[in-house]
Amino acid sequence: MCTDTPIPLIVPAVVSVAVPARVLRAAVAALALATGLACAAGNGDSGGTGASAPSAALSGSPASSVSSASAASAMAQLAPAPPPGTLLDGPTLVPIPLGGGASVDSLEPATLSAVLKRAQGGVLMAIAGEPLCSITVYKMRYATGGGRGEATDAGGVIMLPGGDDQRCMGPRPVLLYAHGTVLDRNFSMARLNGEARLVAAMFVAQGYVVVAPDYAGYGVSSLPYHPYLNADQQAGDMVDALRAARIALPRLSVRTSDKLFVTGYSQGGFVALATQRAMQERYGDEFHVTATAGLSGPYALLQMADDIFSGRPNVGITAYLPLLTTAGQKSGATLYTSPAELYEEPYADGIESVLPATQRMDDLIKQGKLPAGALFAGDAPPQGESASTHFADTNLVRTSYRKAYLQDVAAHPCGTDPAQPLACHSANRLRLWLQKNDLRSYQPRSPLLLCGGQRDPVVPFANASAAHDYFAAHGVAPQLLDLEAPAPDAYQDIRAGFAKAVERTRADAVAHDHDPHKAVLDNYHGRLVAQYCLMAAREFFRTPAP
Questions:
Q1: HSE value, Cβ hemisphere, 13 Å, CA-based, for 242
Q2: Which InterPro entries does the UniProt entry name for this protein (predicted)?
């Protein structure tokens, strides 16, 4: 019953927020740890190594051989875990690198403008707009819970706008941002590049205070796995990051308005909707969400998995599936008795610790820890499109496991009624876990935008369509934006910009004698849709529907 997660030695003296259910789980975990330590040091009834270990007095060793530091450490471990949302470290200023070894504490609008004008031939400037505010980044570490509710920690960032423009001063709106799937164990939003830089340019430079968790299992977090697409845990992680930020912001002399926006991309789109659900159903007295934007997220998790096992795998699935099943297993779902029940023998051994990794994906493939892209056996029907990519002899998932999954799909079909897509009675443990975390399970009480692209090879747009149909069937239809389809008037310019970006990608591929179709698909999810859906989210937040 004892947790493997280290308990912080010092409980910071901060104002804690009552979160009954999750605090109770954390307290139980701490109590179990204390009980275990007591048993180890107790009498012979425990039968453990602690019972047979002689005391310093009986062994003839001087009592001073047990250092005061060790004693203090042991006593500190008996202290209750800090409540979720406790600020453990920070806020700490993060210097922003400029290249050539130079860095600045704050990125001024003129400097950011120059960066955006150089990036992608000025496309990023057209997307983000002329920066109004400087950007300052702080990192923090906060208490949160793991997949089972075990006490752990996570890192995150607070990005602050500054400057003389009125839109950068006074109480500012808060954007709670959830990042997309990353495979790098050391990932941190504090590094202002890639996704973090885009978010900073799109929102912080326009006057938003951005709070963005790294997620438990990444960066400074001590959790040895990542609770990938565990809706309750990931929403709790977001809530705890915001709680910690609320403690940190007064220390930075920052005031915020009452506007709270939630968004995220890919995995983060899923997390954003899970957070909207959690804030309205469990934390309504603490948070009021102004509006939410889910961007290319796997909201209809069960439907997507059923499609994958039916022969239509997504790009990247050989990395995403181990992340998902490990998260379920670590959260107590018992998806398998051993990894070899689900995964082929070359990959089963150690697969629960492969991702997130400190190595590149290419290196993991070369080392034989993951296949190059084949999810299913080459001779295993049914097979949909792209069979040559996702079906081969060096595959990840056992055919016997896939057959059992498909038998359950046939016996217990789901999704036949848009209003009740989860009203099925699966007997398959993986499908039950997916069903539990499918987000077609609530009705939004604040405005919601779902944005994506019809040709997305990583997260199919069918997720957004299915979620939209479910919400609409319950009378709370969100705005649905397919960047490939005719758009509402408010998004016409965004759709036109997306079309031009796709054409530029195609033309650039032709100019370099590359396959233009492949070039578009390779950039579709990670760059093209991401940039323009974030642009749509910002427009939506400016004028959300009532």
A1: 25
A2: AB_hydrolase_fold, Lipase_secreted, Peptidase_S9_cat
Are the C-beta atoms of 472 and 489 separated by less than 8 Å? no
Q: Where are the domains of the chain?
A: 20-77, 290-299+446-546, 301-437
Using DSSP, state whether 2 is helix, strand or coil: coil
Give the pLDDT band (50/70/90) at residue 57.
very low
Q: Which residues of 361-382 are buried (b: 16+ CB within 10 A; e: fewer)?
A: beebbeeebbbebbbbbeebee
Q: Is the separation of the CB atoms in 205 and 132 below 8 Å? A: yes
Kindly give, in sequence order, each residue whose CB lies less than 8 Å from that of residue 448, ignoring residues fewer than 6 positions away.
Answer: 273, 276, 291, 292, 293, 294, 471, 476, 478, 479
Residue from 140, 175, 171, 176 nearest 156 by CA: 140
Residue with tokens 């979160």: 19
Q: Are 80 and 8 in contact (CB under 8 A)?
A: no
Q: Give the distance, in angstroms, between the CA of residue 543 and the centroid of all CA atoms in the same chain.
A: 26
Which of these ranges, 63-77, 108-122, 196-210, 373-387, has the smallest mean pLDDT? 63-77
Residues across the chain: 546
CB proximity list for 135: less than 8 A, separation 6 or greater: 96, 106, 107, 112, 159, 160, 161, 162, 192, 200, 204, 205
Structure tokens at 501: 């970006």
Q: What is the pLDDT of residue 386?
A: 64
Please tell me the predicted confidence (pLDDT) of residue 464: 99
Beta bridge partners of 152: 144
Angle between helices 492-511 and 516-523 (to 10 degrees): 130
